[in-house]
User: Fold this.
Amino acid sequence: MSEASPLLVVGSVALDSVRTGQGERVDALGGSASYFSLAAVRYCPVRLVAVVGADFPSGFRQLYDAQGVDTAGLQIVEGKTFRWGGVYSEDMNDRETLFTELNVFEEFHPVLPDAYRQTPIVLLANIDPVLQKEVVDQMESPQLVALDTMNFWIESRKEELVSLLTKVDLFFLNEEEARQLTGYSNTLTAAKEIMAMGPKMVVIKRGEYGSLCLTSEGWFALPAFPVENLTDPTGAGDTFAGGVLGYLSQRGGDLTDGHLRRAVAHGTAIASHTVASFSVDGLLDLGLDQIESRVRDLWDVTQFGQRP
Amino acid sequence: MSEASPLLVVGSVALDSVRTGQGERVDALGGSASYFSLAAVRYCPVRLVAVVGADFPSGFRQLYDAQGVDTAGLQIVEGKTFRWGGVYSEDMNDRETLFTELNVFEEFHPVLPDAYRQTPIVLLANIDPVLQKEVVDQMESPQLVALDTMNFWIESRKEELVSLLTKVDLFFLNEEEARQLTGYSNTLTAAKEIMAMGPKMVVIKRGEYGSLCLTSEGWFALPAFPVENLTDPTGAGDTFAGGVLGYLSQRGGDLTDGHLRRAVAHGTAIASHTVASFSVDGLLDLGLDQIESRVRDLWDVTQFGQRP
Assistant:
C-alpha cells in the first residue's frame, strides 16, 4: 500500500435509515464519501473532506480512524448531520426516498487542509457541481480528477456540471443520467456525446447489469457479479467508484485502457460485497485478497474461450 | 456445414406490422420460427414446422428456400396468416401490442414429416406448451431439446409448461418470465429454481444487457453487444436462440459448459445484427465470417486481462 498514490474524496457523510426486504437500519453510516472512502482505503491512503453535525456518533468517527481513513478534512459543525431515509422495492431495483434532511450539508463549503492540496487523485463524489468546482480550484495540478453526480444536479445545475466536465478525467454516471444529460436513449451514443464534453473516460453504471465504459481506445462492457443475498443496494455505485479509483491509485493513476478495464473489474467485485450487507458493513473486514478472489470469480464467469 | 447436425424448429410464422423510431413496416416476415430458422441456417440445415394461411406471400416462401430453410413442414391452410402489430417506445425498451390476430394459428397442430422425426436438435419456439409437447411426442429420441416461451403461457399454461420442462435440455426465457415462473426476483436464484425443474441449462435473456446462463458447472454472464443503429428489436431473442443452437449443432449438440459459453457469444453476436434492421433483413446476407467477426469484437470488449 505504501507505493499507492493517496486519494482525496469530497462528498457526503450521512446517517441513513433504510428499509429493504432483508430488514431495516436507522441512522446507519452512509453517504457517498463514506462508501467511497471505506472501499478505496483497501487499496491506498484516503483523505476525506465532508461535513457532519455535532450529533455525529463518535463511534463512526472512530470507525474511519480504525479503517485508516484520514479525517483531518472532516468538518464537525453545530447542527445535525445530513440524514436520508428510503425504502427499496421487493426486487431492490427501485427505491422511494422517504426523507432528505440536508441539515449541516446546506451550508457546506469544502475546505481542503493544506496537506491535501497536492493529492494526485481526487473523486468529486455526488454533491453540488458548484462545490465540486470549489474543490478542483483548491487542488494543485491533480493527476486524475474523477466525478460522480446524480439526476438532481443534471436538472438543476446542468450548466455548472457541463463546465466542470472540461476539468474531469473520469466521469461516473448511470444510464438514466447519461440519457438525461445528452438526450440520447442509446447508452453508447450517450457515452460518446459525454466524452465530447471533456472527460477522457466515461463509466456508465448499469446497476445489477454491470457497466459500459468508453475511453479514447473504444468501449468495453462488464456484467455485474450477481448477488443472491442482496441486502441493501445503497452505496453500490460509490463503492464501485472506490474500487475503480483504489485500483488505479495502485498503478500511480495511470489511465491506460488495460488498467481501467481491470479497475472496473475491481469496482464490480467490491460493490458485490457492499450490497450483501446493510450500510458499509460489507466493507469493514474486507481484505484485498477477498476482492481479488471475487475479480477471479468474475473472470471465470465471463470468459468464452480463446479470441476467435 | 455438412458436418453440422440438422436442427428442427417449431414455432410461429407471422406477418408483422411494426413501428419504431426508425420507421415502419407493414406485413413484414416475422414470427419466432422465422427469426430462429433464418439465424440457425447460417450454421446448419434447418427444418421448419409452422403454419401459414393461403394469403402468405409466395415471395416469403421463396425467401426460405433461397436461404436454405427446409419448408416441407410448413403447412399452408385456408384462411389468413397469423398477424401481429406493435409499436416500440423511443428507447425501444418497451413495446405496445396493437393487435394479435391468431387466424390459422388458432387451429394449428404441428405435424412432423416422417423425415423430420429423427432430427437430433429441436427448438420448441414460443407457442402453446401443449403444442410443444405434441412435437416432443413425435420426435424419436432427440439429442437436445430446447425450449422458449413467453409470459402468456406461464400465466395460462403453467402446469403444462412445468411438466414439459422435465423433457427439456436447454430453456431460454427472459428475466421477467423467470420471476413469474418461480416467484424469485433475484435472477440467479430464479435460474437455480428453474434448473431444479428439469432443464440441464437455463439461459436468462436480459435484452440490451445480455444474458445470464446456468449449467451444472455454474453460471456465466455476457453483456450484449451495444447497437447504436438500433432499428427494430423484434425477434432478437429468437435470433439469439438461433445462434446458440446453430453453433451447438456444429459441435454435434455437445452441451459442455465451454461450448455453451461460445454458443451464447454467437447468439449475442447474431442478435446484434438482427436488431439493426427491420424484420429478418439483417440476417439474409449474413455470413458466418461476419458473425465470427462480431464474436471477436465481443471478446475484445469484455476482456480485463489475465486471470488473477
